[in-house]
Amino acid sequence: MAVWALGINHTTAPLDLRGRFAFALDQIAPTLGSLRSAMRKPPEAAILSTCNRTEIYCASSEHEIEPTIEWLAHSGGVTPAQLRAHTYTLQDGGAARHAFRVASGLDSMVLGEAQILGQLKDAVRVADEAGALGSTLNQLFQRSFAVAKEVRTSTEIGAHSISMAAAAVRLAGQLFEDLAQTRVLFVGAGEMIELAATHFAARHPRRIAIANRTLERGEKLAGRFGAEVMRLADIPARLHEFDIVVSSTASQLPIIGLGAVERAVKARKHRPMFMVDLAVPRDIEPEVKALEDVYLYTVDDLAHVVQTGHAQRQAAVAQAEAIIDAGVQSFMHWMDQRRVVPLIQQLNAQADEWRAAELTRARKLLARGEDVDAVLDALSRGLTQKMLHGPLAELHGGDAESRERATSAIRQFFLRRER
Question: How many other CB atoms are there within 10 angstroms of residue 254's CB atom?
Fold first, then answer.
């Protein structure tokens, strides 16, 4: 089997380009179907899509990297050449190493962050439920989970990490003297918003509101923080009420437009607004950033904040890379063993055929009343002759070089003393 990975992330592609290739979790299954049908032979496949990356992992009898690039480019409405300038491709051991590093948080914007592991597990679960996961990718991902666990328990890779949510709180604290006097609006009710709400709630803001497409899910999250719930449609009319706005939805189009923010700023008499857009594609129109009294940050804008503590983590990174190296070697050894499985199956089938033939002959002799010891002796001789026929034929035939190879193989397989 051949394994390959194709991806774009926060280091290779700008935010707006990444937005073209962002897939919500409920879109992954049909997207996998489209990907697999675009290949000559449907491969095993999984897609990981987060605010910082979109990655495709595949396994098949041969590498099909170019068709994968062409399919992804088409899905995002760009040419393969445009996409290729921002992608990375990895094969076999390189693909395994990348998956292990991603799962362990070593390839994240927030070095050592733990959220990516849950996102990868979700991606694997969806691929499995869609019938796109086979034994090769299943092994790859299960081993990546095990490596990530060892990295997190054996090193301090996450000890100094700052999450995107914590970074947002830090930046908000630089704008507002007392976060306890602010009013905060969260747009969305997913995992990222839940994390952000947890961090902001710890600073006890004056009021918290959650706007979501479905009120039921919004109410469930609001109950944890004593927040009010509102509909997305109510945002334009009420945006001016909030000092801080944090948005992260799966919408393919912006939720908050330039006009709505302009009206909100005017109604606030130009009191500052702090806005964080954690969504990919964007939830807040990028033109908002040019407005006076509005401080808009995207996931990429937070990069320099979350790198705080980077130097302290470098020793832990070295330890983590050693663990990953061992994991890659183990996976590649498993892959090498898989390559001889067909030969092992053929060998077992041949041995079973010989055994069945000799047993049939022995039963016939016993049915005729032949001596049991004589039948057993004939059975053992028959099996031995069948097993040795091939090697002996190689020793007696062929040229000198062939006989030398046969001699070496026979010594290795039949005359080796067990240590």
Answer: 20
